[in-house]
Amino acid sequence: MLSKALYEYLQQESKAILLAYEALLKHPSDPKAIHALRVSTKKLRAFFSLAKQLPGYSFGTSKHLHTLKLIQKIGGAARDIHLQEMHLKSYERKAKTRFSHAHLLLNTRQTTAIEMLTDTLKHVTLKKIKTLPDRFLKSIRDLDKDRALTDLTRFLDQQRKSIILPASNAHHKIWHEERKKVKSLYYQLTILSEVLPSGYGSKKLIAEMYKGGEILGKWHDTSMLLQYVKQLVSWLKKENINLPVNTHKLVSLIQTDEKEQLALASKQLRKLSVNQAASPQ
């Protein structure tokens, strides 16, 4: 059952990556395809981080993951810019302003990111991803299932214990690292949800990890937008360029939401960052 769960998950995400990749070859600026490729790549990385804990594991994936990570990084930049512009427009409506300089710079960055993604897709191939699930299954055909499940469960516990609650004034990067830990553990728990011991509490823990990932993700997007807008305001002031009407209100609205979202993230991380086995009793 463990081998089946691993194989089916890998098969599912490999198929999603190939579909997104084919869509991007036709339309490199397709935001849905970029997002799909990005998410499935993260899931695949979480999968192989988990698979490395299997006893006797020796399946090589570095080349595949390196190519995927490259596409994910470039495509992710385009996706982040797209989201930033949507969020900025939302705050502009509330502040009754239009920050034209911000949109101009975002559009320029978006164009550059899409051009880079287009060029990258011309020089890489993901054809071997199609056979990845079958090759992986073959590599674990002699797997000791009981020992493997014990090792994987221990790894999940270690991952849970590695999640910490940063200080409220900690740098953005520190909070972002915890966000990545939460998302990775969420994916890994999902992979093993049907094979974990009944007393492990995986369904409740998965729900809490999902919630944590969503809250931290929302905070991350707002925090990145705040950094971008504040930096741009600073640049414009240095160049003695007049700021749009209600710019102060715009920054204030984003800043207020960022603080509130960070407080929610802190509350959720406090639930998750416990120094005990990964079963929410």
TrEMBL record:
Organism whose genome encodes this protein: Chitinophaga silvatica
Lineage: Bacteria, Pseudomonadati, Bacteroidota, Chitinophagia, Chitinophagales
Record InterPro entries: CHAD_dom, CHAD_dom_sf
PROSITE patterns, A to Z: CHAD (PS51708)
Superkingdom of the organism of origin: Bacteria
Xref: SMART domains: CHAD
Pfam family, one: CHAD
Signal peptide: none
Segments forming domain CHAD: 1-271
Name of the molecule in the record: CHAD domain-containing protein
Database matches in Gene3D superfamilies: CHAD domain
